[in-house]
# Entry
Amino acid sequence: MTAMSGSVTVGIDIGTTAVKALAVDAEGTVLARARIPHRLITPAPDRLEHDAARAWRQGPLRALAQVAGEEAVAGVCVASMVPSLTAVDSRGVPRAPGLLYGDARGRAPAGRPGGGGPPRAADAMPDAEGFVAWAVREHPGARGYWPAQAVANYALGRVPAIDTGMAMCMGSMRAGTTWDPDVLAAFPVEERQLPVVVPMGEAAGAVRAAGPRRGATGAVLSGGTVDALCDQIVCGASEPGDVLVICGATLIVWAVTDDWLEAPGLWTVPHTVAGKVLVGGPSNAGALFVDWARALLSQGAHTTARRPRPAPRPGDPEPARQGDPAAVPVWTPYVRGERAPYHDTTLRAGLHDLDITHDAAAAERAAYEASGFVVRHILERAGIAARRIVASGGGTQVLAWMQAMADAAGLPVDTVAVPEGAALGAAYVARWTAGLESSLDGAQRWARVGRRVEPDVRWQAAADGRYARFKALSPPA
# Structure
């Protein structure tokens, strides 16, 4: 591990399948990294959960210990997916499953908080209210009802803190800058049982040492924040026509534009870059679908499920696409419904137009193309003319996925140099919190391209026909 100094900060990302942590210096250079895997539990098609004690509490503690060692760290920030929730005891230890985005337990009955009517694409995270309603029913009188970020921050610094950006994802429970007492009374839940909210960029507390060296370490602790925002600030997608595609368990698509555009089923939010706007949203066509499809094909495919091809070394030649561009079936990637733009939990996946000439590699290619088709559909729905995709997340290390995305979307794909984008962005937020930066603006200097993948004209032409088929098989616009 490269020697650290007091200007080093640590970003921790609690992801769907692992906790990632990076120790980063002032120039955005990664000095140390850690990955602590955890299980994604799917007891039913409409349920998605973590062992919250392992993934949200133990994982961040272990990850920080691995990247920080004995060196001085100025600050720590935890990011994670949204929404999530568990019930904790008096020691802040989870005593319930860690519910994740899209879990049916977030769909409360009509007349209850979080329930009534179809999913609302315009709302930040309608699941969050339903999660609290479920947790209060199943674990009444718990010490707290906390998302993943708050659980981790309590383990790290004895404060269940989230920042104002994360608080916006708590639905109608928030009224401006405070918790809404009328909504809380309907659960019922008290404000003291919910996370402490601190302004983004302000310290929530101090990181405490574990074991025999208990006590403050000197590192400031940020409020827990949103993973996609952290990815956004360090990816370099800041000009109109740029499209940030986060290739994690969830596929998150954010197209950059100068104008405030609204399209059915998509979200429109301000960019962190002044004057810019983001249009898009999350889709289930990320690694959650791709890994599942690869697992089905693992007995015959030339890759092993959940073991992506290693990232190519700089300077390696671009490998050719494999097989016949016309001999690829079409996946609809809705293994557990779809988020943007349909917001329909009842949708299901299908493999279409399969014939005896197709092999496992063709079906795997179809899974990768499905992600690209989702990106293309979101851009069409928003009416945005894109010029490039900026891809972040672990999926960027699967070159076949990036090639298929370029062909299916008809756009060059610039992969980021540091695939753990959420952890990298969180490390920058920790710098801001520690007083080493004055705002988020400087995060752009950390943006670096790893490699560019260009569309191949033959594969792109074939994918165009499959995209028309994909749209015909998908719900009507």
